[in-house]
Specification:
The complex is a heterodimer of chains A (318) and B (452). Chain A is of the alpha/beta class and 318 residues long. Chain A has 12 helices and 8 strands. An 8-stranded mixed sheet of chain A has the order 3-2-4-1-5-6-7-8, sandwiched between helices. In chain A, helix 2 packs across helix 3, helix 6 runs parallel beside helix 7 and helix 9 packs across helix 10. With 452 residues, chain B is of the alpha/beta class. An 8-stranded mixed sheet of chain B has the order 3-2-4-1-5-6-7-8, with helices on both faces. The longest helix of chain B has 22 residues. Classes of the chains: A alpha/beta (318), B alpha/beta (452). Chains A and B meet through helix 3, helix 7 and helix 10 of A and helix 2, helix 3, helix 6 and helix 9 of B.
Chain lengths: 318, 452
Amino acid sequence: MIQTLFGSLDEEKKPSFVELMKEAVSRTRESLSERLEDVVSIGKEIDRSTLDDLEAILISADLGMATTEEVLQKLRHKADRKQIRDISELKKLIKAELFAILTTTGSRPITKVNGTPEVIMVVGVNGAGKTTSIGKLAQTFRSQGKTVLLCAADTFRAAAIEQLEIWGQRTGTEVIKTKPGGDPSAVLFDALQSATARGTDYVIVDTAGRLHTKQNLMLELEKMKRTAQRIVPGAPHETLLVMDATTGQNGLQQARQFTQSAGVTGIVLTKLDGTAKGGVVVAITRELGLPVRFVGVGEKVGDLLPFDAHDFVESLFN
Amino acid sequence: MFENLHEKLQRAFKSLRGQAVLTEENIAEAMKQIRLALLEADVNFKVVKDLIDRIQAKAVGQEVLTALSPGEQVIKIVRDELVITLGQDTAKLKFASQPPTVVLMAGLQGSGKTTTSGKLANWLKNGGHRPLLVSVDVYRPAAREQLKVVANAIKANIYEGTVGEANTATVERLAKEARREAINSGCDVLIVDTAGRLHIDEQLMDEMQSLKKLLNPQEILFVADAMTGQDAVNSADEFHKKLTLTGVVLTKMDGDARGGAALSIRQVTGQPIKFIGVGEKYDALEPFHPDRIVGRILGMGDILSLIEKAESQIDKKKAQELANKALTGDGFSLEDFRDQLRQVRKMGSLQSIIGMLPSVGAFQGLQKAADKVDESQINRVEAIINSMTGYERNHHESINGSRRKRIARGSGTTVQEVNNLLRQYAQMRKMFKQMGKPSFARRMAGMKFPGM
């Protein structure tokens, strides 16, 4: 299970995880801290106008207006009463607010029937990094000695199947596929049947990238979900929404629509090794209660890290 | 949040009634709303600040007009300013005096370079060019395979070559070979699809620079995702500094992102947005029109695109005939009515048409109604008309009770529905007749249009 996976990975590679995580968000951290210093110049009293400037900082991290407002509203009361004395206190308060938002999500226990595979469906808009994330995820499971089957249900995009197959070879994982243009539900059916027969631990399903506004494509996801349920009770146990860290406020709409159609249970935040902040996940967690499960920090097979809210917020500000 | 920018502005300006000029004080609330709207559309906050300053400078001191409400007046200033920022003309591709013209595609991972390369090749082909595609993305699994599939689908030429080791030397060799191939095979445009890279990845950015030196491209297009948030300025700025971009392609515009990144990218690079990607099919690439996306960023719809779509889909001659008939007398028959229904349907689903209308003023309710539009209603209307005889279609007054019953049975509807349709038709006919009278044109000219 993914929850238990968090713990075990943490123990095994603790130093490298923290380091990588820090490295991944260091840029965000630097720019945020820098600007915080700008805003709160030494000796200047922290008041409302300081907080107004702060608004711009949070917005530039893609947190969005509503979330920014919520965080600032709480700080404003304190600033009015002159309860915030210096910058470190201000940082601490912002951190606490962000952390509170990111951790209010209850992790949903996975109900899985013994002897059947855990099915993880991976969805998202075009170019978010679904296939790459699946390759990395497969590697994570493989390194734990689990058996994994990949299901190439992106039968639409040119060479998507080939791309997944290369990841299959890299991670020593078999790929169940059909011909391009085939029915995604049919290949899912095949994959789940053979996984059940073989007693495979995990099936990771790659789906075609789709914009959340395309009604018919969203219906296709619903159909795939129904197909999965028919063969493996309770499947898909996880539906991961892959989101590019550069995504702006449209990410919220993506999360809403995919949750409605595909029942998203968690987020994979990719491309966090750039300068993008990925702050939209705070807005998503705040509104939809979806936890961030993993972060993608590079193109190598090991560049997928379990998300830890504490570390995430800490590395932003420390 | 955007849907009601217009409303919010109206509210902000309520207190303004009776005042003669716009001042910094009395437009403060409006500026706040505009700022909010732009930020929610993912326009970079620095760009927003800049814009607001400029808009405020223009608005302050203006007399409150009588023809426009103060809200409309400010929206007009905002719109004009955004159009200026985006550049007013639709940009075109530059071609080399000595072929082949080289177009280098650049961008972050997953922005849509490969798909756009294919669409661009298709667009050039339709314009009478002979494009050659080449992928120098030797890094991402199956990237080159993807371009090959795309090239086959659009029947465009592709230089495949061999990879060997995945490094910069291979990338350069492939590029050189492809150019030679373009010359040898008489292709006049070479489109080079590159690997997605982060703007802070020095090694890969160096590779991009050496590709530029090697190929001396006429166009270096930055492919950017319309859903990009605040970071758009960072990546665009860095790519522009290293490569001196010549244009931008904004992809995934068929989603519901407001596309504020367009403003950000344009502002930091100063380069025009040349194309937008509007779908997964290979013909879903359109020239960019600055004035149109402004409506979208501000939540005011894309009327021009709608008109263009209508123009391309509707048979002009037929429409003209119809108009003449309808306006000059009692020529507008049920048959013509059916023709018109069919024309409208050719433009796509009602939802998609309504989606292009502005979401302010008189159209406001429509957006919400769009979700509930019953497409089958139109099918039923058509079925009813189909169930009439030719005589009936041209002589609606002849449709009596028993004919109505027969028509209802024939179309699988009820007599009430047939009655409804006939009543509506009679109303339309009456309206058309009035429109044909000269007095109508005079009345129209005096009318104020809602929203803008």
